[in-house]
Amino acid sequence: MEARAATTQGALNRMPSWLLGLAPLLLIAAAIGLFAALGGPGLGERSGPPVEDVAIESSALRPGEIELTLRNDGPDPVEIAQVAVNDGYAAFEASEGRTIDRLGSTTIAIGYPWIEGEAYTVSLLTSTGGTIEHEIPVAAETPAADADFFGLMALLGVYVGVIPISLGMLWLPFVRRIGAGWVQILIAFTVGLLAFLAVEAGLEGLEIAGEAPAAFGGAALVFLGAIVAYLSLAGIDGWLRGRGERASAAGAAGGYLALMVAIGIGLHNLGEGLAIGSAYASGALALGAFLVIGFAIHNTTEGLAIVAPLAEGRSRAGRLLMLGLIAGAPAIVGAWVGAAAFNPSLAALLFGVGVGAIAQVIVQLAPAMRDAAGRLLHPGAVGGLLAGIGALYVTGLLVSV
Amino acid sequence: MDVPKKKTGISRRRLLAGSAIAAPTLALLHERIPHRGVHDALGGHDATAATTEQMPHGGHTATAAHAGFAPGRTVDHAANGFDPTEMLRDFDYGRATRLASGRVLREWELVAIDREIEVAPGVKYPAWTYNGRVPGPTLRCHEGDLLRIRFANGSEHPHTIHFHGIHPAFMDGMPGIGEELGGGTIEPGQDFTYEFDATPFGVHLYHCHISPLASHISRGLYGAFIVDPRSGRADADELVMVMNGFDTNFDGSNEVYAVNTVGFHHIADPVRVRRGELVRIYLVNVLEFDPLNSFHVHANFFDYYPTGTRLEPTEHTDTIVQGQGQRGILELRFPHPGKYMFHAHVSEFAELGWTGFFEVT
């Protein structure tokens, strides 16, 4: 008995370790293959009718036509047999055929004389008689993705991202003038701002995830994005700090913190741009000066957040400008992506990334709130935190009405 | 069978909601940027006019002049086992024999069958039927005949046949009434013979009366029941139209509306009638879930006989309304050749299938 065990042990010891690592994988693959080849022995026939789960990933309106991009989010193929718009059957064409396989996608073009400003419910009738409904709350023609349009989106990104953040950074001289105690309060104010942004982005990401196919993760994408962003930034931070310790200077630390804040805010603005761009493209957003001004005021406070860590030391103008671009320019990219190729799964992921980035920045900034006695939540810091949250809440009212 | 219904709606993000009120204050962006391409989309008043104008026929996909199913596919009537065009003039007089008393005895056999039917091109519906068709056979007889309808329940569910007409309680096809005589609820595998006199004359209906009622009726267990008056009616091209609908996703409202089951059937295959000839339509409304249905014919007027129980019309009109279970007889002559639409004047029903053409030659 013991001899045989020893032999087996010896044989295992002689095997190369890569083979030991690979063997279980091969066995699992073989087992799955056999299970599939035998058609799932012992499971019997599936019970109940086929599950029809179709997500509408995007919609576009053109004169006389409503276009929907569908994705089969369920386990069974779904055939779109008929399409009704506002309780009337309509002709349609499907780009990839009327039958959508699991996780497959098709785009259907429905001939319908829609009228601008009216609301529509598109009802897709499947071969089993099930319906999938999609609402168009306010019909408006989807803009063509041409140079003019991308120009408009870029302008929009500049208006809501780059300009207000740059303006907010003009508080730098003020930040330099005030004492260390006030800087702690200001940092706390920044942390409050960021906490609000993180919550807002998280909720919005979850809301968008509700429209996304569940098969691609849905709400989990928001958390996934947040975790990935947090860990990535923490990793970059660790690496930069390792290099920075050799040439450490008080000013450099502040500059470094400012950069991290700018990156965090930039990732958040990527999501914000995405939301604006997609809402504009889907006609859900009427671009008005009021809305743009609202976003601008909202985002001006973000500029203050970037310069708060720069109270000490010198900063070159070029570097400040770059910080402004890092924080604001992603809004432009977001608007482009959102308007041209909006995808709810991608949007949910990006909102999650924004949340994770901000959370990492908060962790970085928090120590700077400490007072001389080393306390974190001293009265000044708490006041600053609450003021920061309050400031974004109030300016947020401008864009939520 | 139950089909899950998924509602995918865009709820506009809160952040952006309400911003529509800002539309008039577009000036800021509007003035400063090249925007020819996006101008039309923004909702300026000039843009609105332009888009609305080009809308009706300007699409990539041809927009039909009236609603209809997607082209390129039709209902497989052969697979269904019944054709709406044939059902129009299909009257089942049963097996007639003369009794010693001189009365005519008419006998039918109706079997309840569960069966999947195609109610719109590509859309299957798990129907419950009498004799495999929806509506069931149009039973027709003369006033005073003795009627015997043997009902065999081949369905997986209990059913009855409840006739509209005058008959004893235990022949009423009502659960709990006449059970001791073998009537009432007819369980799967059981059978029962309904027997009663053909009275009063008129156009009636029959349907299952098991609870839940809306479900048992809307699944397809209904048909027209016509009792001709002793005096007879003038010779005419006679048609039967049973106005029905199908709640294909079982959410308590119909997805498809029609006469004789298949929506838009008489768009492609019009009801052919002769110019000047008397046309008589036995119209029955068995629609569930919607309280009212209606019938409207274009460019012509008809005499209307509610329930067909009087020989004098009550109205000369082109539109009548029927509640659930109501029915009547329409008589008209088409003076002009051509195609004339007929449809429910409930526009929603019309565009969800209840529309067709008469073709007068």
Mean pLDDT of chain B: 85
Number of helices of chain B: 8
Low-confidence stretches of chain B: 1-63
Which outline of chain B best applies?
globular
Please give the radius of gyration of chain A in angstroms: 27 Å
**Total of domains of chain B:** 1
- Largest interface, and how many residues on either side? A-B, 85 and 77 residues
Order of helices and strands of chain B: EHHHHHEEEEEEEEEHEEEHEEEEEEEEHE
Alpha-beta content class of chain A: alpha+beta
Instruction: Work out the oligomeric state of the chains in this entry.
Output: heterodimer
Order of strands, main sheet of chain B, comes to 13-12-15-20-17-18
Determine the structural class of chain B based on helices, strands and strand pairing.
mainly beta
The CATH topology of chain B turns out to be Immunoglobulin-like
- What characterizes the major β-sheet of chain A? 5 strands, antiparallel
- Spatial separation of the terminal alpha carbons of chain A: 80 Å
Note the main sheet of chain B: 6 strands, mixed
Terminal CA distance of chain B: 45 Å
Low-confidence stretches of chain A: 246-251
Mean pLDDT of chain A: 83
CATH architecture heading of chain B? Sandwich
Specify the helix fraction band of chain A: 55-70%
Walk me through this protein's architecture.
The complex is a heterodimer of chains A (401) and B (361). Chain A has 401 residues and is α+β, with helices and mostly antiparallel strands. Chain A has three domains: 36 residues; 83 residues, Immunoglobulin-like (Sandwich); 254 residues, no CATH class. In chain A, 59% of the residues lie in helices and 13% in strands. In chain A, the strands form two sheets. In chain A, strands 3, 4, 6, 8 and 9 form a five-stranded antiparallel β-sheet that branches. A four-stranded antiparallel β-sheet of chain A has the order 1-2-7-5, with no helix packed on it. In chain A, helix 8 packs antiparallel against helix 12. Chain A is flat and about 75 Å long. Chain B is mostly beta strands and 361 residues long. Chain B has one domain: Sandwich (Immunoglobulin-like), CATH 2.60.40. In chain B, the strands form four sheets. In chain B, strands 13-12-15-20-17-18 form a six-stranded mixed β-sheet. A five-stranded mixed β-sheet of chain B has the order 2-6-11-10-8, with no helix packed on it. Chain B is globular. The two termini of chain B are 45 Å apart. The N terminus of chain B is likely disordered. The chains are: A alpha+beta (401), B mainly beta (361). Strand 9 of chain A pairs parallel with strand 1 of chain B.
